[in-house]
Automatic annotation (TrEMBL):
Organism: Devosia neptuniae
Gene3D superfamilies (alphabetical): 1.10.1670.40, Hypothetical protein, domain 2 (1.10.340.30)
Substrates-to-products reaction catalysed: Hydrolysis of alkylated DNA, releasing 3-methyladenine, 3-methylguanine, 7-methylguanine and 7-methyladenine
Enzyme Commission number, as recorded: 3.2.2.21
InterPro entries reported in the protein's UniProt record: Alkylbase_DNA_Glycosylase/TA, DNA_glycosylase, HhH-GPD_domain
Keywords: DNA damage, DNA repair
Domain of life from the UniProt record: Bacteria
Name of the protein described by the UniProt record: DNA-3-methyladenine glycosylase II
PANTHER family from the UniProt entry: DNA-3-METHYLADENINE GLYCOSYLASE (PTHR43003)
CDD domains for the chain: ENDO3c
Residues of the HhH-GPD domain: 54-205
Amino acid sequence: MSPSPRIDSVETIAAHLDVLVGIDPRLAAIRAVTGDVYPRIDAAGFVGISRIVCGQLLSVASAAAIWARYIKVEGALDPIGFLNLDEAAIRAVGFSGGKYRTVRAIAEAMASGTLDFDHLETLPADAAVGYLTAHKGIGPWTAQVYLMFCAGHPDIFPAGDLALRKAVQDGLGLDRLPEISELANLARNWAPHRSAAALLFWRYYAVRRNREGVLS
């Protein structure tokens, strides 16, 4: 079975990992530790990216509480509806001023047609990240997380994620924590299957931390 372009099932991830182990046999031992690797697919488009912005620099619990209040605001889940809301309504649920301005800029770009999430899903990895980060308030991390978890993009590796850096160090037996640029360069060897590699290492991080108390 050839890998699907979308990372949206255990079977698809397994197909990508089959190819990855052939590219880099070191990943076989990591895969033996993790067992099945599961996808995480969130809502796409305005809802998905708004949720990612909501969660930036917050604990999972705090982000979930704010998001639960946000989705109850009438119109907040639609770009046009959002533009009809005033800042106070969004700030009242827990959004910072910066996050409000970012989501508003996204809503404006969607309303004007300069940000098209359907078009985004047709782009290769680097072009997709560049397309998103060209819009005000969307940084590389937001773009990469959206592409992986909302678009199911098969070739994204968020090298700045600390858990990934720790997992790669441990899993590959590196003598130190890789710098972000070093990990990004290493991950290029796993293209065009980098999303499956990231999911594999995140799963490895969780398993190792829970079983052995390492990687803290």
